[in-house]
Structure formats: C-alpha cells, structure tokens
Write a structure and sequence with these properties.
Length: 195
Amino acid sequence: MGSTGATAANGVISVPLTCNLSTACQGAFLLCLPNGDLCEAGQTVDGGGGRLAGSDFVVPAGATGDITVALTALGQQAASGISSFGASVLVDLLNYGTVTDSSNANFQLSSADPPVYPAGTAANCGTAVFAGQDTTCPFALNVVAAYTQARDQGNANGTVTAVSPVTGQQYTMQCTGQSPVVCTGGTNALVAFYN
C-alpha cells in the first residue's frame, strides 16, 4: 500500500497499491472499524458489521495502480465532521488470502464531503460515536463506555446510567439496536454509535 490515508470525495477514496508478484494481483481492499473484528465478507453496516469501505481490484504484476474504493454509509458517517478517522485495513488477495501489514493497521480516513450523520444526530464525536443536538460529545462517550461495560457484564436490557461532565449528574439512557446502537433519555439526549 502506497499511502496511510485518503480523503473521500463524493463518497470515494483512491489508494495506491503495488503488486509485488510475477502475476497480476487480484483481490479485495477493505477498510474496517479499528478493531477489525466485524469486517469479514458479507459484514456490512446494514448487517451489523464494521465495514467502512470496500472494492475489488486488479493491479498488473510489478506495477503500482490507484484503486478507487467506495465508502459504505458507515464509512461516510465515520469520516464526517472530524479531521480523520483511524481505520483498519484488510487486503484479501486471490490465491494468497489476507495480506495486510501491521504498518497499515491505522489508515487515516477523512472526507471533503458535507457531513453525514446517523438519523437524529448532529455531531461526530470520533470513534464512530455520534451525539444529538442537545447532547455533548463527552456525555456521549460516557454513554458508550457505560453501555460497553454493561454488555461485557452480561446486562442485555439496554438501560445504562452515565454521568454528564457538563452537569455532573447521572442520567438514565435506554439503548436499542445493533448497527448503530441508539440511546435516548436524560434531558433530550441522543447518542448513536457502532461497536
């Protein structure tokens, strides 16, 4: 891979790839949420996965080619309204399998397009966390932390309590869905996130 980041225009990025084989390199290029766990074939944001962008490619043997890669709805949201979003790279090469290198694990994705957020949200808080108009990003991040902790402890009812750094008070939030998880409650608070 000839770059460690790209800026989307009209929902598409360009990435230079070099083929170091004696035959053409053919495969799939994927950008995923940073943990990379949800980026396998068929796992898209609509299906509960963490795919930010993807494209099939062919690069001639011994050559470098710029491939165009389309962002998913999640990819467009993750890159909106922030300077850059760190993504994992997965390159699946036909007949060779996954051939990524650890230096490409933190690909920086940004966007020149107008911001696109999940329904009802108005700000990108980074790490695929979004806040509603009446919600601060520090509170949104606390809601995600509370949700993650509750889920990891086996609490599946979706109700969490989080502290607002602005008011110093605890608020109860009801969380539903999977991709994104949407939490509402408090004082007109809305948080949406992918995890």
